[in-house]
Amino acid sequence: MLNTRDMLLLFCLVGAANALYKQWIPDTNYENKTNWDKGAVPCGNDIVQFSAQRQVSVFVETTHAVQEMRMPVDGEFILNSGAGFYVLAGQEPGCGQGVTTKFKDSDSLQWFNPALWQVAATVDELQHGNFLFSVHEESVPCQYDDVVFKALSSFKVDTSSSQSSIPVKSVSVQGKKFDSKSEFSQYLSSRSGRLMFHGSSAITVGNPGCGDPSGCECGNSVNHQRICSSVTCASMNCKMPLLPIGHCCEVCGAIITIHYAPGFNLQSYRQRIHHLFLVQPKYKSIQLGMSKVVKSQRLMGIIPFSPSPEIQVAILDGEKGKKSEALASEIVKDARSHGSNLGITGAEFQASTGSSSNQSGGNAGMVVGIVFGVFIMITLIVIVVVLIRRGIVQINGDIGELGGPLDHGFENPMFDKPNMLSDIPGLSGTETNNSISMTGVYFVNPVFDENETDFNA
Question: Using one digit for the tens of pLDDT, what is the confidence trace for 11-61?
Fold first, then answer.
């Protein structure tokens, strides 16, 4: 039973038409201890060192005492209200003897590293840490997503890719949302923009959101290899590991394929699965990702044709896939029972345990494949018949029987008539001992006719 809060959330999601939010995780904040090589924020007895040749933007939230600070040649501090630095004349109690601590390099952090992003359905979910699981391609911002960099934060991200630009719906930086191409382009050319974004590809905003209630393709398949280059796959110990579309690694779990009709809404169905199944204690450890994918249908399981969109539900349980199989079975059963109300025409699943289920109403892909194959055969027959009727293609019906007379091909007028030579004026021939001698005969060879050479026999 959905409470008032859940109903409001569901209503907002249905109206949001697949507007997912992707938040960048790393930062270059001064107060983040993971940004320092000693694993601690420098105190008043320490020497603070930034690499001289590195370009960096550092957000400072509060006031800090230092013994000495070595600055980069090109960099900036973004000071929060009341933040700053001061140098102590003596020693700071509780700070130890003092060390030289270095700020870590952040140049290598890649936009297309799926481990560096968090995914949520709303900004509120981002703030509360209610993140969604996604396949690797969709963990990185898709073309219809809103990208969020934390408000009180600085960062550095390498946007290099094989494309000249990376389109997204919007980008939020330091609390300001950019959804205008010209405005964001102006920000990227500013000092802060150049320090935070670097690489060969430019981020572009203003891409329209996904207007299809059934979902839209992410668009990151073109960068699949780049995304997967930063992913390390663990060995699987289940019976039949599965590879979801858009994922870099095989997984132990289950994959559900949902076939849909007009009226299907991806966001509302995602919420239905969450409230009916994922809230149950037995499925607490489950990771579930849902997205629209395009899969090529195969005629007789071999010949690809007619790519068709469908909904992929990837389920991982971190074990051998038994929990995923149980959940997949329940979801497919629900889809078959209520599919007419949800816009679902069929559902099937595969599990890494080796189990599977057929699609509701029979295997639609196989039926489509057979129909398409028969249609091609009929079309080819009709084309051949038309070509024969028009005389373009001829069939020779004078085919002799086996053992019948041999076909000697065309007649040779020189040798098929024994008396022909005597009938030709100017030619004389005598037959002697089964041989023929000829006088006054010459032949023209068109290859050597240029020299008009006579060959006398």
Answer: 343 334 466 999 999 999 999 999 999 999 999 999 999 999 999 999 999
Name the domain count of the chain: 2
Neighbour count for residue 452 (Cβ, 10 Å)? 7
Which residues are within 8 A (CB) of 450 and not within 5 positions of it... i.e. 6 or more apart? Answer: none
Burial class from Cβ neighbours inside 10 Å (0-12, 13-18, 19+) for residue 338 reads: exposed
The b-or-e profile of 345-356 (16+ CB within 10 A means b, else e) is bbbbbbbbbebe
User: Considering the domain boundaries, does residue 319 fall inside one?
Assistant: yes
Tell me the one-letter amino acid at 371: V
- For 260, the domain range is 232-351
User: Where is the domain boundary, 351, 378, 396?
Assistant: 351
At 252, list the tokens.
């132990």
Q: Which helix (H) or strand (E) holds 100?
A: strand 100-102
Residue 146 lies in a domain: no
- Summarised one tens digit per residue, pLDDT across range 268-292 is 999 999 999 999 999 999 999 999 9
Domain boundary among 102, 124, 157: 102
Question: Tens of pLDDT along 145-196?
Answer: 999 999 999 999 999 999 999 999 999 999 999 999 999 999 999 999 999 9
Residue 200: inside a domain, yes or no? no
DSSP string for 290-324: EEEEEEEEEETTTEEEEEEEEEEEEEE-SSSSHHH
